[in-house]
Amino acid sequence: MSNIEKQIKEQRLLLDSDRPREGHEERFLQKLEKLPKQDPVRRIRFRHAIQVAASVAIILTSALLLVRTYKSDSKAAKQDIPAALIEADIYYASQVDARYDEIRDFDFDDEEEKALLLQELKDLESYHMQLMEDLEANPDDERVVSALIRHYQLKLEIMDQIITQLNQVKSEISENHEKESI
């Protein structure tokens, strides 16, 4: 018999027990603490990588098809709308965006009020979208064109009033601070 077989036969009772010897856990933890700390190694399986790549490819392809479809639909619709009206729409939209940015940049005491005001301004877009759909359906209808331009004018007037009121509040607050500091 070899030394290993002899040693196994002599300590058979110790080896057959379900429980390790006393102090085993402590010795094991001490050995673990001596080991250098390493980040766990992440292994990416080839099959998983292929599945992820296929998913990304499908999503990108469908997004590309949607964008192409949307662009072709909007180009066809814009060809029916007079160029002067498209220019007017671009002009008014840029004016509205500039005023929206100006309102958004104001310092409000209450962020909820600011969010509510900005949301209400964004909600006016639903009426604009409805007018644009009507215009695409009936590009020669003067009533739709007039309603669209009037909508922009009213929206700009409202935004100008909001900006004026915000400037008044801002100047009143700064005057109060100046009086208090004197």
How would you portray this structure in words?
- This protein is mainly alpha-helical.
- Among the domains are: 32 residues, no CATH class; 92 residues.
- It is built from seven helices and no strands.
- The radius of gyration is 36 Å and the shape is elongated.
- The N and C termini lie far apart (104 Å).
Task: Please outline the helices and strands.
Blueprint: H1 3-10, H2 12-16, H3 24-34, H4 46-80, H5 83-104, H6 111-137, H7 142-181
Q: What's the helix-strand series?
A: HHHHHHH
Please state the oligomeric state of the protein chains shown.
single chain
State the shape: elongated
Q: N- to C-terminal separation? A: 104 Å
The count of strands amounts to 0
Gyration radius, to the nearest Å? 36 Å
Secondary-structure class? mainly alpha
| Count of discrete alpha- or pi-helical segments spanning 4 or more residues | 7
Mean pLDDT: 78
Note the beta-strand portion.
under 5%
Low-confidence stretches: 75-79
Largest sheet: none
State the gist of this model.
This protein is mostly helical. Among the domains are: 3-34, no CATH class; 81-172.
Keywords for this entry:
single chain, 182 residues, mainly alpha, elongated
